[in-house]
Amino acid sequence: MNKGQDSWSEGLPLEGFVVVDLSVGVAGGYGTRLLSDGGATVVKVETETGDPLRRWSGSGAEIGDGESGPFFQFLAGGKESCVIDPGSADVAERIGQLLASADAVIWSADSPFANIAALHPTRLEVDHTHLVIVSISPFGLDGPWSGRAATEFTLQAWAGAIVGLGRGAPDRAPVQVGGRVGQFVTGTYTAIGVLTGRMNSRLTGRGCLIDLSMLEAIVLSLTYYPVTYHDVMDRPWRTERALVLPGVQQAADGLVGMACGTLQQRQDLYVMMDHAEWIEDDAIMSRPAEVAPLIAEWVGKRTVDEVRELAIAFRIPNAPVADPSNIATLDHFEARKVFVENPYGKFLQPRRPFQVSSFTWATPQPSPALGEHDATLGPVREHSDDDSGTLPFAGLRVLDMTAFWAGPTSTHLLALLGADVIHLESVVRPDGGRLVGGVSGDVDMWWERSPIHLGGNAGKKSVTLDFTTDEGRKLLERLIETCDVLVENFTPRVLDQAGLSYERVREIRPDIVMVRMPGFGLDGPWRDIAAFAYSIEDAAGLTWMTGYPDQNPLEPSCIGDPNAGMHAVYGLLLALEHRTATGEGALVEASMIDAALSITAEQVIEYTATGSILARQGNRGPDAAPQGLYRTKEADEFGRPDSWIALAVENDTQWCALVDTVSEIPELRDPRFASATGRLEHHDEIDKLMQAWCDGRDSEYVVDLLWSAGVPVAKMMQPHRQTEIEQLLARKFFEDMEHPVVGRYRQSTLPFIMTGLPERLTQRPAPLLGQHNDDELRALGVTDDDLRALEQCGVIGRAPAR
Q: Among the four 13, 150, 262, 288, which has the fewest Cβ within 10 Å?
């Protein structure tokens, strides 16, 4: 397995690291794409017909014989291809030879190699003890739901991701997050898992198995700590659907998104729209029938640029709603050159989702032809048996200068895996996550009660420093000197104004890895615009793919933050690999927008390759029919006729199982429905038949009946009911916490189970504001008298300044 030396720049951190890819689909394809970008040699093992994605075109465009679709070309860029027949007598032996000289293997439950006993991840862990093994499956390798049929759509339903954020109109079915984002985030966790396993191997001298669950990745990425929220607040985040205002609106020349997450932003919106009288009646935003037409009229009279210019002036989060036809021409993306030509020169694709200063990326390489590379073998990898029991990131000291969700979710993962994470805030400007969640300011110690802050900061320490003061700035620099990593997600001007550029930080700690997570990047015309999940989703095309096809698109209002957080983690791990090899630190620019553009790549790829515009389909999907939500007869937990099951049929086998199981619907045996093409063409008819059948049955009955027959199906769950999912309980995804202010609650952990990790990952709840001031500042030489003086003048503290 020899990658051509002229194909890659010298010094990429994963050069010489060999990954055998036994997976199919987007999750494994994207995860190994990230590894290949980092310099790894990725050998994709395929059957004689190749990965099904080779024949995939989201627009249905014809793919010639011997060619691969553009989306596959993007995912497989820079990889190698080796053809092995899964039915051959020596398949296990041949793949075993590849694995003996590899460092890692990616396995997915839907691969044609998945049913070969000798290649099951638990068997590989025994037979190839040097390997880092990442298995990708819907529910994980063990537990009561292991091996059951599922698709991303049904997993979104189980997770509560479809209904939990109130997405959609109250008189219609709730709507999924479009664009296969759950598969992409699972792919990012795949790459993180590989590098986490590599760090673990340095400690233990042996490989490990990382059992990754797509359901758990979706819970972490498409829902907003709903269990913690319900435990702390004794109510769900939302109980009903409503169109969020102002939301996505039709301007004179295109779609524009605006969102108001705070009272101040709403009041500013009222003034901007010449309706200052609404300030006296803030509840007007909860009466969409009254106010929505007025907002639509105001926006419709203006161009997108005019609306945005005003919104920026009033500091209201906003963005153009990008679609495949205009995304590459937006001025910010053109200035930053975020889209590059595929090596074949036939289409545009997003560049890598982060930039790292310490090495030069290679020129993008083409995807391999099927079976292009011989399975030449390298030396057999060796291992030792030193199982230290140490967490993979033990000894890594991280200064966490992040807030809200994107930044804290990245450093939360590091803390769970052993890093010493110091969450830095100030009493003047505490983490905005402490202010989210609807906690009343009249409650004692209200700033410690936000479920959002609790969910993303468990296992960390808290230090407060007002670094806008001379004393705070000096202490911050002394703290930086003790850290290996600094992570921040301010708008770029904040650290620039404080004199804390990467150059200055590197002077303080020469080998530091500094991760900057600005919303729109460190340069470009949108550089200093504050970003929230919804504005990132608007600008990246995530909004465009979500919603009903006959209405304006809907903002997912979730994926923009955790997706950015996990891409930042992967960029950090690459930089740490480089530091391990060279001793050099790095600046990692991991903007939210670049991470989002990376997982919406298919849209611009398909448009520039074929001229086709991929668009939202409500609850339908690109590769399943029928797929949708069907209302069942029972009332939901709030007494409303709003109970649904999610169904997705991906192949003829599942269709036959559905037809045989619901024998009460003989019309489903119509020959027109026998093929996938026919089912897509007649989807409306199938929907009517399935809805009529579900009308007289309850969700539990439907799910039990169809799932036992092997049909992907799910009950649409409210997200705060995640703890009722026996699979999550069996895998100990939630851990009980005891907090000194809020008491007991449950905390989500990681989307994978990893060999050698302790049974409990969360060692302590989220810290109180400034809880660790004394210990951490004394370690810098600050005396008790100094501590008292610093607190008196507000440089440090344990409560927000009034």
A: 262
Domain count, the chain: 2
Distance CA 256, CA 538 (A): 8
Return d(Cα 707, Cα 715) in angstroms, integer.
11
CATH number for the domain spanning 656: value is 3.30.1540.10
What is the structure's pLDDT at 275? 95
Residue with tokens 């802050």: 453
DSSP 176: P
Q: Which two tokens stand for residue 179?
A: 């664009």
**22's tokens:** 């036994």
How far apart, in whole angstroms, are the C-alpha atoms of residue 645 and residue 138? 18
pLDDT band at 9 (very low <50, low <70, confident <90, very high): very low
Token digits of residue 441: 């300011």
Structural domain includes residue 238: no
At 714 the three-state DSSP class reads strand
Give tens-digit pLDDT for 390-444: 899 999 999 999 999 999 999 999 999 999 999 999 999 999 999 888 888 889 9
Mean of per-residue pLDDT scores for the chain: 94
Separation of alpha carbons 283 and 540, rounded Å: 31
Cis peptide before 626 (omega within 30 of 0): yes
pLDDT value for 6: 31
Residue 587 DSSP label = E
Q: Which of 382, 412, 434 is the last residue of a domain?
A: 382
In angstroms, the CA 331 to CA 338 distance is 11
The 3-state DSSP class for residue 584 equals: coil
Residue 137 above 70 pLDDT? yes
Q: What number of CA atoms fall less than 13 Å from residue 369's CA on the CB side?
A: 6
The residue behind tokens 């045989």 is: 660
Tens of pLDDT, residues 746-802: 999 999 999 999 999 999 999 999 999 999 999 999 999 999 999 999 999 999 998
- CATH label of the domain that carries residue 121: 3.40.50.10540
pLDDT tens digits, one per residue of 102-130:
999 999 999 999 999 999 999 999 999 99
Report helix, strand or coil for 75. helix
If you ran DSSP here, which 8-state letter would residue 487 be given? E
Backbone φ and ψ for 544, nearest 5 degrees, come out as -55, -35
Of 669, 690, 711, which one is at a domain's C-terminal end? 711
Q: Letter for the amino acid at 23?
A: S
Gap between the Cα atoms of 177 and 175, Å rounded:
7
- Decide if 228 contacts 456 (C-beta within 8 A): no
Structure tokens that stand for 389 in this block: 């029991």
Q: What is the mean pLDDT of residues 220-238?
A: 95
Element containing residue 292 per DSSP (H, E): helix 288-300
DSSP 397-411: EEEEE--TTHHHHHH
CB distance 673 to 686 below 8 Å: yes
Phi, psi of 672 (to 5 degrees): -65, -25
Domain of residue 28, residue span: 5-143+179-213+360-382
Other Cβ atoms within 10 Å of 703 Cβ, number: 21
Write out the H or E segment, with its range, that includes residue 342: none
What does the alpha-carbon distance between residue 669 and residue 660 come to, in Å, rounded to a whole number? 9
Residue type, 731: R
Question: Which three-class secondary structure string do you get for 599-624?
Answer: HCHHHHHHHHHHCCCCCCCCCCCCCC
User: Quick check: helix, strand or coil at residue 392?
Assistant: coil
Structure confidence by residue, pLDDT tens digits, 56-99: 998 888 998 889 999 999 999 999 999 999 999 999 999 999 99
Closest C-alpha among 10, 14, 56, 59 to residue 33: 14
- Of the candidates 442, 418, 422, which has an alpha carbon nearest to the alpha carbon of residue 431? 422
